[in-house]
Amino acid sequence: xGISKQGVISMNGSPNPNxxxxxxxxxxxxGYMTTYSGTREIDNTVLFNGKPTIKIKPSSSKxxxxxxxxxxxxxxxxxxxxxxxxxxxLSTDSDTWExxxxxxxxxxxxxxxxxxxxxxxxxxxxxxxxWTYVAQTFTTTADCKFYSYHIYFANTSQTIxxxxxxxxxxxxxxxxxxxxxxxxxxxxxxxxxxxxICKIQKQGYIxxxxxxxx
Length: 214
Known about the structure:
This protein is mainly β.
């Protein structure tokens, strides 16, 4: 496995807050992800930056219901705001990070789907067996909920692994950090609660420059 240098992560200033809770697999395992199609599991053999990854396979269908997630800890998005959704991904098949492929996600109200426009897929190519940073921005058209993932696979035998999932305000992706209300994983010494940027940096949450391409 390689590391793709396609990243466009901003390293200027502090990372923006992560709106998604429970994205650190060391502290929360599958965390915010539940599923009603496809399969997902924690993979302790495929690590990213020392963290177990989330392994996802499609159901019998590669599209639509390929692998869909229901979001228990729903994040509410505000009408008219721009958001950035990003993560690191590894795929057994060459693919793309676009609306009808691995980059498909959902914004929804109780009565309507796709409450967004101005989608911009910043990184679109996902090479085979290469950790690749992908990101996209969008602007909401209603107060709505964010649901990730809603993946369209290339085929039913495809497997992907993901890490460092982040949703943030703005149109430039910044480094992954946990949600401000999450516990921080610190190994054998247990957890630190109610984290802040200083504590995160001390515990090595900021990705090392070898993973970053400005």
